[in-house]
Design brief:
By secondary structure, the chain is an alpha+beta fold. It has one domain: L,D-transpeptidase catalytic domain-like, CATH 2.40.440.10. The protein contains six helices and nine strands, in the order αααβββββββαβαβα. The strands form two sheets. A seven-stranded mixed β-sheet has the order 3-2-1-9-4-5-6, sandwiched between helices. Strands 7-8 form a two-stranded parallel ribbon. The longest helix has 26 residues. It starts with a helix and ends in a 24-residue tail after the last helix. About 15% of the residues have low confidence.
Length: 244
């Protein structure tokens, strides 16, 4: 039997080793633990894995040279369209700005999205990290253009006219009548009631992260697998000022 003194020393040593391993993993993944904790408290219903992936992708984008965002939108396409699967976070305060319904493309699925595309005319949604850009007024009214940041995954978003716009079919009344909301041609359409707030929160370079547990994407995405070699700059470390 080990003595009580030896057991105490062993416990402390293992605790230090575990703490070091956790810290190293967190640094390598690019996650800001404080921010992650604040966002988790602000939105307790969001999947922790989805939130971690969204922050990882955002941190990687910043370390690759993109401007540090003030807000981050997260869309969890693993949830049915009848659920409020859009979250917008204020990254400076850690507050939840909005949680609401969001549509997927009509060829991505009925109630649940399961098929995604980067092909023009597919009428499917795309997954991955986007950067919200300029506003405009089109056939759907006040809208927001998106640039897909992941080659082969969503980088044809602008060419496909994948934008955030308002739609009458994104409404709780649809869920009551049909068990789901309506579907778009691939755009993450939102309720007319919140479109202005959504657009104004995200315009000018904020990040939009759309998630689905596609294993090929999860394993191959540069933004989800930064590791020690960062993109576009090959930086081994991220300075404190660059963390989101």
């Amino acid at each position: 039997m080990f003595s009580s003194r030896f057991q105490c020393v062993l416990a402390v040593a293992l605790g230090v080793l575990f703490s070091f391993s956790l810290s190293s993993h967190t640094l390598a993944s690019g996650l800001d633990k404080t921010l992650y904790g604040r966002l988790s408290v602000a939105a307790p219903e969001i999947s922790r894995d989805v939130l971690k992936n969204a922050l990882q992708a955002s941190q990687c984008a910043v370390s690759s040279g993109l401007g540090k965002p003030k807000r981050l939108a997260v869309i969890d396409f693993s949830l049915p369209s009848s659920e409020r699967r859009l979250w917008i976070f204020d990254l400076e305060t850690g507050a939840l700005v909005l949680r609401d319904l969001v549509a997927h493309g009509k060829n991505s699925g009925l109630v649940q999205a399961s098929a995604f595309s980067n092909v023009e005319g597919s009428h499917q949604s795309s997954i991955g990290l986007f950067q919200a850009r300029e506003t405009y007024r089109g056939k759907h009214g006040y809208s927001l253009r998106l640039d897909g940041l992941e080659p082969g995954i969503n980088d044809l978003a602008r060419q496909r006219a994948i934008v955030i716009h308002g739609a009458d079919y994104v409404d709780a009344s649809w869920v009551q009548s049909y068990g789901r909301i309506g579907r778009s041609h691939g755009c993450p359409a939102v309720s007319q009631k919140v479109i202005r707030k959504v657009v104004d929160s995200l315009k000018g370079g904020q990040f939009v992260f759309t998630y689905y547990p596609d294993q090929q994407w999860l394993q191959s995405s540069d933004y989800l697998n930064c590791g020690s070699t960062q993109m576009a700059g090959n930086q081994a470390e991220v300075s404190e000022s660059e963390q989101i």
